[in-house]
Amino acid sequence: MNEAPAFRAFFGDTERDFRLTPELVTELERITGAGIGGLSNRIFRGDFRHAELLAVLRLGLIGGGETPQTAADLVAAYAARRPIMEVFPVAVGTLEMLMFGSASVVSETLVADQGGEV
Predict the structure, then answer these.
(1) pLDDT tens-digit series, residues 56-110
(2) Long-range residue pairs from 41-48, CB within 8 A, at least 24 positions apart, any chain
(3) What does pTM read for this prediction?
(4) What is d(CA 16, CA 64) in angstroms, rounded to the nearest whole number?
(5) What is the rounded distance in angstroms from the CA atom of residue 17 to the CA atom of residue 2?
(6) Which of 16, 47, 71, 112 meets the CB 3.0–4.6 Å disulfide criterion with 66?
(7) Alpha-carbon Rg for the chain in angstroms
(8) Residues sharing a CB contact under 8 Å with residue 17, sequence separation 6 or more, in sequence order
(9) 15-44 pLDDT tens trace
(10) What share of the chain is helix, strand, coil (3-state, %, to 5)?
(11) Rounded to a whole number, what is the largest CA-CA distance in the chain?
């Protein structure tokens, strides 16, 4: 079976892969108390909690190959205290890859508008 597609974005100090595997989706649902469909729909609409964005990023980094500790450290350093609209496109791109197999022009443009950096 093929590996789930990854959303690649500059995050922190380098380009990183963000991927949500089936096991990580289950964990995301547990953490947020929401099903993946409803959670994704809300985030795409801009109706989300900050903690939900951070959970998507942390779990996406783990799925992308980072250790759980490194993922938590990266999110704490480069997402938790940053303006929400800097990290929002990365969370959206990660969820789009999960739901559709590709990121939309919108999320890729949002990341590029940030200078390709988060």
Answers:
(1) 999 999 999 999 999 999 999 999 999 999 999 999 999 999 999 988 755 655 5
(2) 43/91, 43/92, 43/95, 44/92, 44/95
(3) 0.87
(4) 7
(5) 16
(6) 71
(7) 13
(8) 6, 7, 8, 63, 64, 65
(9) 999 999 999 999 999 999 999 999 999 999
(10) 60, 10, 30
(11) 38
